[in-house]
């Protein structure tokens, strides 16, 4: 056997990491797509029961229910919103994973005034855990590095 040729077990392990990374990547993408359509239950299903969400203006929210309540109260008033996830990278270690990326949020309070938006962006730090239903978000730290427009509905205070 050539010493540079991986054996089957190594290939299986490498393939599992790639499959895990793809499953992890789809977790925030699908979750935040649900958030944009105000499918609150669909969105929060991607979080663990004891999840934490650290977001500058809100501090640290603990537990899936507390996270859901704050986000629903803050984002329901928007008539339209987009959560863009950018430059994502993940590291997998067994049933745990970490990730980094960036957020770009755009919110429209009034569809009749689509030029009046709030937008903001900043870094994400994620922690994930594999549960029986698949990969879930255990912790998010979200920073805001920039914003543009007025938060006319005070969603992020």
What does this structure look like?
- With 157 residues, the protein is of the alpha+beta class.
- The protein has one domain: Roll (Nuclear Transport Factor 2, Chain: A).
- Helix content is 29%, strand content 43%.
- It has three helices and seven strands, in the order ααββαβββββ.
- It has helices at 8-36, 40-44, 64-75, and strands at residues 47-55, 59-62, 80-93, 96-108, 117-131, 134-142, 146-148.
- Strands 1, 2, 3, 4, 5, 6 and 7 form a seven-stranded mixed β-sheet that branches.
- It is elongated and about 65 Å long.
Question: What is the topology?
Answer:
Layout: H1 8-36, H2 40-44, E1 47-55, E2 59-62, H3 64-75, E3 80-93, E4 96-108, E5 117-131, E6 134-142, E7 146-148
Parallel strand pairs: 1-6
Antiparallel strand pairs: 1-2, 3-4, 4-5, 5-6, 5-7
List keywords for this structure.
Nuclear Transport Factor 2, Chain: A, 7 strands, alpha+beta, 157 residues, elongated
